[in-house]
Structure formats: structure tokens, C-alpha cells
Amino acid sequence: MSRAPRAWQRMLSGRRLDLVDPSPFDIEIADIAHGLARVARWNGQTVGAHAFSVAQHAVLVEAVAQHAAPALGRAERLAVLLHDAPEYVIGDMISPFKALVGGEYKTIEARLMAAIHLRFGLPAACPPKLKAAIKAADRIAAYFEATRLAGFSAAEAERYFGRPSGFDPARLPLIPWPTAEAEAQFLARFAALAPPGADPRPAATGTTAPR
Fold first, then answer.
1. What is the number of other CB atoms lying within 10 angstroms of the CB of residue 135?
2. What phi and psi values does residue 121 have, to the nearest 5 degrees?
3. Which of 58, 122, 163, 199 has the largest count of CB atoms under 10 Å?
4. Where are the alpha helices (DSSP H) in 82-127?
5. Which residues touch 158 (CB under 8 Å, ≥6 apart)?
6. pLDDT digit string (tens) for 116-127?
7. HSE of 117, CA atoms in CB hemisphere, 13 A
8. Segment 26-35, tens digit of pLDDT
9. SUPFAM superfamilies, alphabetically (predicted)?
10. How does the average pLDDT of the chain come out, rounded?
């Protein structure tokens, strides 16, 4: 008799995350930071001695949002930092490939995002205004990544992401960090934004909270 395909991933914290029905109890920020620091943006097609990681991208987008939307509160900025957190499980698919894959990818991503938000005291879904602010900051970050790291001309990047104004790229974290630094910087921003009691340390290896 054939077995059902495995639909969960074992994390280094010892958690076992079910992709079909992800539970907030099986999500640890240390797993997210560790994974995102090892996932390359732009499929790795960037300049520099290190990949430009999703963890560094998250820190960049949160820095852009601080400038572009200064009225955002701490919890909202935490949502900005976590906007690509599901990619610690499913990786960073470039936008053209997402368009080809279609809706199933978005369904899985939405389930993971809801579980991540609930784990850290955020609403399961972002309110439309916050979602728009995250998208705007993400596009600004993408423009600078595209032109400074991924070989896009300014005109080409403007076509796909728009041309931002009022930003000094020299003040943004655009030089790719080593993996360990990307992980540490992501955790530092999480610690600054997370609600009291959100412990960034990993769970004891081999344990899983009751569901």
C-alpha cells in the first residue's frame, strides 16, 4: 500500500511544520530567521561575495517602511518585517514563476502567513491599508535591489517596480550580508518590534507544543 506523500518539514528547533494545516504552535522565530538567511533573492543572480538573502530583504523593507510610512506602529512594522516569512518553508519563487504556478501557491503561502501572524500576536490577515503600505515598501526595496544588485537598468526597474523618490540608497542595507549576519540582523529587528514575551530563542530540540 502506497503511503501518502509527506506534507511537513522538520525544523532545526525540533518543530514539525505541517504545510497542509500549519499550526502557530509549530512556528519559531529562530527557524524563520535561520531559513530566510539562507534563501537567496533573485534566484541568487546578484552581485557580491554573498547572496542577497530574504532575511536581509525583510530588514531592508522594514527600513524603507519606517521612512515611507512613519505613522506605522510597532506591531505593523513587525508585520512588514515578516512579510516574506513563509519563504523559510517554501523558498523565494521569483514573480514570473509565481504567475505560472497559479493559485495553489498563494493558498499555501496564505495559510503559512496566517499561522506566522497568529504565533506572534498579529491578525491572521493584514488590513488592506497595511497590506498596501507593505507592498509599496517592497516595491521600493525591489527597485534598489534590481538596480544595485540584480543587473537591471534604471529604466527596466522603473517599468516593473516604479521609480522611488526621497531615498538615499547609500543609507539602505544593500551590500549583501554573510548568512550569519543576515540571521542576526533579522532577529535583532524582530526583538525590537515583537510584543513582550515573544522569545526569539529556539524551542528545545525534539519538542512540539500540543495542538
1. 13
2. 75, 20
3. 58
4. 87-90, 95-101, 103-119
5. 143
6. 999 999 999 999
7. 19
8. 999 999 999 9
9. HD-domain/PDEase-like
10. 89
